[in-house]
Amino acid sequence: MALLQDFEAIVGTANALTGDDVARWSKDWSGKYSGEPGVVLRPASTQEVSQIMALANEQRQSITPVSGHTGLVGGTYAPGGVLLSLDRMNTIHDINTSARTAVVDAGVILSSLHDAAEAEDLIFPLTFGARGSAMIGGVMSTNAGGSNVLRYGNTRDLVLGLEAVLADGRIVDLMTALHKDNSGLNLRQLLIGSEGTLGVITKAVVKLAPKPKAYATAMVATPTLEDALTLLNRTQDATGGAVEAFEYMPRNYIDVYMDRFEGAREPFEGPQDINIMVEVATTTDTDVNETLLEIMSDMMESGMVLDAAVAQNESQRREMWERREAAAELAFWRQPIVDTDIAFPLDLVPEFFERVGVAMAALDPDHEPNFVAHLGDGNIHYSVYPSRDDQDLMDKIIEAVEDIVADLGGSFSAEHGVGLSKLNTMRRRKDPVALDMMRKIKGALDPNGILNPGKLIPD
Amino acid sequence: MALLQDFEAIVGTANALTGDDVARWSKDWSGKYSGEPGVVLRPASTQEVSQIMALANEQRQSITPVSGHTGLVGGTYAPGGVLLSLDRMNTIHDINTSARTAVVDAGVILSSLHDAAEAEDLIFPLTFGARGSAMIGGVMSTNAGGSNVLRYGNTRDLVLGLEAVLADGRIVDLMTALHKDNSGLNLRQLLIGSEGTLGVITKAVVKLAPKPKAYATAMVATPTLEDALTLLNRTQDATGGAVEAFEYMPRNYIDVYMDRFEGAREPFEGPQDINIMVEVATTTDTDVNETLLEIMSDMMESGMVLDAAVAQNESQRREMWERREAAAELAFWRQPIVDTDIAFPLDLVPEFFERVGVAMAALDPDHEPNFVAHLGDGNIHYSVYPSRDDQDLMDKIIEAVEDIVADLGGSFSAEHGVGLSKLNTMRRRKDPVALDMMRKIKGALDPNGILNPGKLIPD
């Protein structure tokens, strides 16, 4: 393949992998899209990415960018194709402590950025289970969410500037570190979340936040989801919006967790149906533990809280987080699974669960639900194991969930992205004028359709 | 004009204004772009906007959307052309107190939304001097900023969903109220700040915030800008980031204010060079007044604060705000003026003032500076009255400021938008690849170039 030789001339033969060397790029974390790429290119610089894209564009060769490969929607699936891996571009160029910004390459691992920020008494607040492998490039391309969105926003709220390579190899420089910048169309927000279909993000300026002086973390059992939302609102009001995480784990999730993880412990003495993990953080001298205890004991008296346990030390806090973050591994341990990534206005979450329960009882009475939710921002990872391996049944389940989502003004794609797995849903559910706009923008910026074709935007 | 009759058939003859009736649309707040439009269309609904655009597109008739007409950059300037005014579409459809969102038409006046939110013990935090006339449509089209950006973000951070009419009359429905939604390219953020070049924004879902229980507002004089930034950081740290406004007024601004406003009062007993207005707000029971007083008295002891006055009541607080908000009226009282709207990373603001002082002394020793700054977010409205009415001199002044902006990684267009007045700067200073991307997107979404042509994106 003459093209391979040309790619090798750009990145060096050692960084144009084929054959056995590409095995580790054969599937993402969902495990659902399995297939080896033909070539994996590992450029060392934006200039090399630019040369790769210019050549690919000339030769009409499709390119699929990949960084940590921890996606769950098949966004980096390209069997036999060319993957462009950003993993060698992994320098943290600058941590500016007075402006509270960092300049990072696309291949920087999320947890490395966490560590570098903490060393300066700052945090990069975006976090989720895959942080030890996920890289900034993928985080930005998918507009990743996670557990702290409630307090700090999604990825797109944390990125001030970026650099990207376009389909034709040109480099666009949007590397500003500004909080106010109205100089034309917002290309930054267009590229963030575009899943590699409009450009290859190579570098970013991200916001850092002050490191909290103290955390208060607790497990709380409530009789109803409405009571849980009351707990959220009261805690937000009492702390001035300092709730960092508000996670919901139902009974069946805890059961699976207990079953699968050695040394796993129940959150409470007796089993509870609604298990909430709440975390509050403060950068001031306020005693957030005290505040949280007061709210919980008050709600316990009025019967709105059934049980509660505050983490007494960092190791108890870690245990609470591990129980929640096990979800990333637990979700796909058993197949077949119908997994979703949906979001609602907060006040409609209880109605979703009521309605989906009724719908599932009708469709497949013997299904087993398995879900967790970032309840604080209305994002539910609602999954079910259907009672039988039947594609028709699974399609019906997805459509039933989608119907309720549409009815309640929710999103069928909250934080994992669209990739391949939600392409049909995009086609069915997204506003058709919006879809047409996306196709026109894609056509204008990548006229040969070489950047991650077949993802995000349905034909 | 047959086309006029067709427009009349859509909006009614009473709402297709010509002749004397269009006088009030002849200039924006800058006063620099004066010229009567040929026709002003005042549709009553999204459907009517859609019909207008479909007809205009068919007839290749340019359309310039306008709402409150309080812009400062000529973004709605269309002498002899067709303005599409959203002012009749002014319904606040919904204030959802539990989800803390509002659904509003593009023609809702900003202060009306403030009032409606406050009636529910909530706030819509975006605010600036023109709030009594500015409308949501223009606020969104220009991604307006203002004095509370520090705490709550720009317009784009406060909009969850929107509806817009495209150049060909199709309506795109992005009216979600979600905090997590990764369903395709982010068209919402593309339309926000597009200054009417990609679509006519007709409706929005905006975020509301809890109404603060208490404010602490003070005027503070510091010896240097560095000391002022220390005051900002200490206040942010002590309050957990609760600073809502941090405004800088230099001596010459106060002088002009004293001169022009009847009953105006000096902020301090003696004249000070650096006058800072700081406002902290709390939704909890914390005594923010106490916190602010402690910091100021501490800094006074170490010589970093020269004088300070805390507002003792709402009327004193209003006086402080009026002094700052007079800037909108004061900026253009005298001509010629070279006005800018620039932003920097916070830590580089003092360096900008040093360098611009040197540059101005060389270019025009007898100029009079007149500026205010949203110091807390690095946004400076740096203006000067040149010593003579000389276009060549004024061009040189602008270029000198731009050079320093580019050198310090700043923005030449922070919050007012580009419109006509910064088109040349866009051409000179914006990354050329970014400009090309904007042109391609514009061409893809408005192939006939009928939406607000000649604005925002230079040819």
Automatic annotation (TrEMBL), chains A, B:
What protein is this chain from? Putative FAD-linked oxidoreductase
Q: Which GO terms describe its biological process?
A: respiratory electron transport chain
UniProt similarity note: Belongs to the FAD-binding oxidoreductase/transferase type 4 family.
Its domain of life?
Bacteria
Xref: InterPro entries = FAD-bd_oxidored_4_C (IPR004113), FAD-bd_PCMH (IPR016166), FAD-bd_PCMH-like_sf (IPR036318), FAD-bd_PCMH_sub1 (IPR016167), FAD-bd_PCMH_sub2 (IPR016169), FAD-linked_Oxase-like_C (IPR016164), FAD-oxidored/transferase_4 (IPR051264), Oxid_FAD_bind_N (IPR006094)
Which class of enzymes does this protein belong to? oxidoreductase
Under PROSITE patterns, the record lists: FAD_PCMH
Q: Which residues form the FAD-binding PCMH-type domain?
A: 33-211
Name its species. Answer: Octadecabacter ascidiaceicola
From the Swiss-Prot or TrEMBL record, what is one GO molecular function term?
oxidoreductase activity
Under Enzyme Commission nomenclature, its number is: 1.-.-.-
